[in-house]
Design brief:
By secondary structure, the protein is mainly alpha-helical. The protein folds into 2 domains: 3-94 and 186-220, no CATH class; 100-163, Helix Hairpins. It has helices spanning 3-36, 47-52, 58-66, 69-91, 100-103, 112-126, 134-152, 154-163, 180-183, 188-220. The longest helix is centred in the N-terminal third of the chain and has 34 residues, at 3-36. Mean pLDDT is 69; it is low at 1-7, 38-42, 54-63 and 217-221. One of its GO terms (molecular function) is protein transmembrane transporter activity.
Length: 221
């Protein structure tokens, strides 16, 4: 996986973290404040109040209170959070261990003649002279050739036994959870653009959301 592709794959995790950090505790506060309200309902049983329909709209009033802008925003943010979880789960990439015997379709400890036969068989299928597909070419160079080299060349085999790869010790690449657009911008402008995106798309709606519910929270406390 290239560096830009890895960074793009990590960006949803960054967005998930930014959204979840304020959303989860605020949702808990919202739920606790809702249950802590002491609703005192005094229903008059006289015929005048019963006929006037004064208490008939209790259900509709509760529904209208739930369907406020802040509550709908809260539900929408949780839907976005669930979509991010689904996306991250289905686009995660596992680290593949280099196994030359498995690549060539052999059992561990296969003889040199079996290794050569397997290499010739895979060469007919993936060699660039036999298969013009670019993906087949990449697979042949990155896997078939290196697997054969790891099992036949003494130096490559020693590297494979020590480090798990015929090319020797492999460096660990750490990606940055930002989209390539921000990483390609030099200087302070990239950071300013990132802060602007976070502020407009996440912090501003959250501040408006909290400010709308602040009077209700103060009444409860």
């Amino acid at each position: 996986m290239g560096a830009s592709e890895e960074n793009s794959a990590l960006f949803p995790i960054f967005v998930f973290t930014i959204v979840a950090l304020p959303l989860v505790p605020y949702t808990l506060v919202k739920i606790l404040s809702t249950f802590s309200k002491k609703a005192i309902a005094i229903h008059c049983q006289c015929s005048v109040c019963s006929l006037s329909g004064k208490y008939r709209n209790h259900f509709s009033n509760g529904l209208s209170n739930f369907s406020t802008c802040s509550n709908l925003t809260l539900v929408l943010l949780w839907i976005v959070l669930g979509a991010l979880i689904y996306y991250i789960k289905h686009t995660s990439h596992e680290v593949k261990v280099f196994e030359p015997f498995s690549i060539l379709g052999l059992e561990p400890g296969a003889s040199d003649s079996d290794i050569k036969k397997a290499y010739r068989r895979h060469s007919i299928q993936y060699h660039p002279d036999k298969n013009p597909d670019p993906e087949a070419h990449d697979y042949f160079v990155e896997y078939i050739s290196k697997a054969y080299q790891a099992l036949t060349d003494p130096v490559s085999r020693e590297n494979f036994e020590k480090y798990g790869h015929p090319d020797g010790r492999q460096g660990l690449q750490m990606g940055i959870a930002l989209p390539p657009l921000l990483l390609n911008i030099d200087g302070v402008s990239g950071g300013i653009l990132l802060l602007g995106i976070v502020g407009v798309c996440i912090l501003l709606p959250l501040v408006l959301y909290i400010s709308q519910d602040q009077p209700n929270i103060q009444e409860i406390m």
